[in-house]
Amino acid sequence: MNTGVRLRAASAGMAAAVLAAGVGELAAAVVAPASSPFAVIGAALIDLAPPWAKDTAIAWFGTADKIALLVGIAIVMLAVAAGAGLLEAARAPLGEVVVGASAAVGVVVAVTRSDATGIAWLPSALAGLAGVIAIRYLVRLAVGSAPGAVPHQPPVDTEVPRRRFLAWTGAAGVVGVLALIGGNLARAGERAVTAARDALGLPAPAVKAPPVPAGAELDIPGLARIVTPNDAFYRIDTALVVPEVDPAGWSLRIHGMVEREVVISWNELVSLPLEESYTTLACVSNPVGGTLIGNAKWLGYPIRELLARAAPSADADMVLSTSIDGFSASTPLDVLTDDRASILAVGMNDEPLPIEHGFPVRMVVPGLYGYVSATKWVVDLEVTRFDRSTAYWTTRGWSARGPIKLQSRIDVPRRGQGLTAGDTVIAGVAWQQHVGVSGVEVQIDEGPWVQASLAPAISDDTWVQWSLPWTATEGSHLIRCRAISATGEVQTEERAAVAPDGATGWDERFLEVFS
Ligand SMILES: Nc1nc2c(c(=O)[nH]1)N[C@H]1C(S)=C(S)[C@@H](COP(=O)(O)O)O[C@H]1N2
Ligand SMILES: [Mo]
Fold it and tell me: Would you say the CB of residue 54 lies under 6 angstroms from ligand 1?
């Protein structure tokens, strides 16, 4: 094969793959969004990824980790497709076999997902069909022989077949891209759930949260707001395609080591006396100084009350909560039955839960990292024991229990903000949910620790803002902070990685102050 033929064969393979991906995405949009080939392959990769891969993905891409994964899958797919094109040109139908086998992997993964519907196989199967036909036809054009001829005959490299090749390959690519775009715009189910959410009024709370205390919001530019707006709230989950749960069809089953099983529907849940509470959620993958933390006013019903209906047996010590997409979390039973505001939440900052934050129902538990407590799109609570059952991240190297560690963060001054000498303010947030923070200290240029002033906290279940006036002098400076908990614990200097149970260490900023 000469270079021209090789290039065309590889392009033919890639065009066939783009067409196949488009067909798969479009089919999925109509019949089963969560079963699109990209969604299922991505979901399987997320599930198979070792713990360090999750760390690295979040460390590199933060909350854009999902886009990074999809781009990665696309690159690998194009590379495989180019190879399949070459293979098809050299020895048909080997390229078709590669495309067909890739689609078959998609089908198998799609039907084995926990949220698979009866037609979960269809998008990948149609994608495979389109891919096989396209690569067969396009590669034949690429090697310059007419369709129907044997492709590895000596190429007849003339102008007319080349034009025909370019036209067909271009068309396949363009149609594929349009189908990809169309499929993603036309997620029928996602639109239906959005409409269902828009149509819902938020039920009135029976117990309102006390107002945010005066002075809790320091209003310093650059400092995280005391209540995080929904659209700025961090999002972390394993769901490449957001689960679509219609409240009308939602129910939660409480079972396992209980006296009686309890099933509760959406209508029953929202007719119960709902309570408001402020709770700061934090991700175990939040590095020191990181932003995978947010504070909201939640509206929900105490899980304690629902568990009481089911009557857990005395030797149970854990509740395994499971989401519709198969994610699960292990929460100590006593944390769900003591007097804290562990709730099945339906509202977030006076709105129904945003779809990506768990609509229609999620768990919110003060004091524990999200991976062991904050199950979104929750549908099942199994009362069990830590020695009998294991949650999603526990099987991937994370700790079975995840109490939030004492932490503090410097928000301002920001590095590289172009600070000039003179009076300024150092400010940030500190937290140890359900324990509370009693103080924050700041150290400048390795000097003595100075007490910052602490704004009033909303409650022990939320973070708190702190600030310290500072007269900045020209030159480089190193600023550190550490929190002191309500029980007198001083935030440790010792650096720990996020895995297996949360980062520790002091947040620090190197700053350049200009004249
Ligand atoms: N269904 C489901 N719920 C989930 C997760 C998930 O992957 N799937 N991730 C958990 C983790 S690790 C965190 S930190 C919180 C984040 O909640 P948020 O996205 O609303 O901020 O959700 C938790 N609930
Ligand atoms: Mo998390």
Answer: no
SS3 of residue 139 by DSSP: helix
What secondary structure letter does DSSP report for 359?
T
Q: How far is the CA of 140 from the centre of ligand 2 (A)?
A: 49
- What pLDDT digit, counting tens, does each position of 257-269 carry? 999 999 999 999 9
The structural domains of the chain, ordered by start, are: 3-186 (no CATH), 230-396 (3.90.420.10), 407-514 (2.60.40.650)
Instruction: Give nearest CA residue, ligand 1 atom 4.
Output: 375
Cβ(241) – ligand 1 distance below 6 Å: no
Lowest mean pLDDT across 116-125, 289-298, 433-442: 116-125
How much distance in Å is there from the Cα of 215 to the middle of ligand 1? 30
- Tell me which amino acid residue 67 is: I
Q: Which two tokens stand for residue 470?
A: 């500072």
**Residue 59 DSSP SS3:** helix
User: Cα dihedral sign for 224, 227, 232, 238?
Assistant: positive
292-303 burial, b if ≥16 CB within 10 A, otherwise e? bbbbbbbbbbbb
Residue 181: is its pLDDT beyond 80?
A: yes
Amino acid (1-letter code) at residue 64: A
Query: How large is the C-alpha radius of gyration of the chain?
Result: 27
Q: Is 220 exposed, middle or buried (0-12, 13-18, 19+ CB in 10 A)?
A: middle
pLDDT band at 149 (very low <50, low <70, confident <90, very high): very low
CB 152 within 8 A of CB 89: yes
Q: With a 6 A CB cut-off, is 431 part of the ligand 1 pocket? A: no
Is 442 in contact with 479 (CB distance < 8 Å)? yes
Ligand 1 centroid – CA 350 distance (Å) = 20
Ligand 1 atom closest to 369 (CA): 14
pLDDT category, 150, cuts 50, 70, 90?
low
* Centre of ligand 2 from the C-alpha of residue 220, in Å: 27
Would residue 157 be called left, alpha or beta, if left means φ above 0 and alpha means ψ between -120 and 50 degrees?
Answer: beta
Which residues are close to ligand 2, an ion, with C-beta < 5 A? Answer: 236, 283, 370-371
* Two structure tokens written together for 458: 């909303």
Residue pair 118/40 in contact (Cβ under 8 Å)? The answer is: no
Write the DSSP symbol of residue 438: E
- Cβ of 380 below 6 Å from ligand 1: no
Residue 402: CB within 6 Å of ligand 1? no
Distance 448 CA to ligand 2 centre (A): 34
Nearest Cα residue to atom 21 of ligand 1:
235
Q: pTM to 2 decimals?
A: 0.87
Q: Closest ligand to 285 CA?
A: 2
